[in-house]
Amino acid sequence: MKSKIVVVGDAPLVMGFKLAGIDDTVQAGESTIQAELEKVLANKDYGIIVTNEYMLNRIDWRLRKKLDSIAYPVVIPMPDYTGKSTEGDEIRNLIKRALGFDLGAKKQEKS
Fold first, then answer.
1. How many Å apart are CA 41 and CA 35, to the nearest integer?
2. Which residues are bridge partners to 78 per DSSP?
3. Chain segment 23-33, per-residue pLDDT in tens
4. What is the CATH superfamily name and number for domain 4-99?
5. What average pLDDT does range 46-74 have in this prediction?
6. How far apart are CA 111 and CA 36, in angstroms?
7. How many alpha carbons lie under 13 Å from residue 9 in its C-beta half-sphere?
8. 80-107: pLDDT as tens digits
9. In what helix (H) or strand (E) does residue 68 lie, and over which residues does it extend?
10. Reduced DSSP (H G I as helix, E B as strand, rest coil) percent helix, strand, coil of the chain, to 5
11. Bridge-partner residues for 77, per DSSP?
């Protein structure tokens, strides 16, 4: 099954991804980000959720814990337009969590 990418965030993030060709976007503010993320999580068509790191750090701790513990969909926090990142997993770690193994790990040689 092919999964879709959805972008949930402020106007600059959403517009940037629309210009890049991503059609599934949801513009949200600090007061609506939690509700919008919950709606997106309920939709099983999405395999990747791109969202604002700043807003993600301000959601309720229960939803944040759920997002941090699930393997699918993969949630990718993006720094805001200033480029400053405060937290956020590296994409390699997110993929590792989703797949259950590290694609970048070196293959061990058998002796």
1. 10
2. 52
3. 999 999 889 99
4. ATPase, V1 complex, subunit F (3.40.50.10580)
5. 87
6. 52
7. 26
8. 766 555 554 555 566 666 666 665 565 5
9. helix 61-69
10. 35, 20, 45
11. 51
Q: Residues 6 or more apart from 52 whose CB is under 8 A from it?
A: 8, 9, 10, 13, 33, 77, 78, 80
Q: Residues, the chain, total?
A: 111
40 within 8 A of 76, measured Cβ to Cβ = no
Q: How confident is the model at residue 53 (pLDDT cuts 50, 70, 90)?
A: confident
Q: Are 87 and 57 in contact (CB under 8 A)?
A: yes
| 2-19 per-position pLDDT tens digit | 788 999 999 999 998 999
Alpha-carbon distance 71 to 17, whole Å?
A: 23
Token duo for residue 105? 């790990």
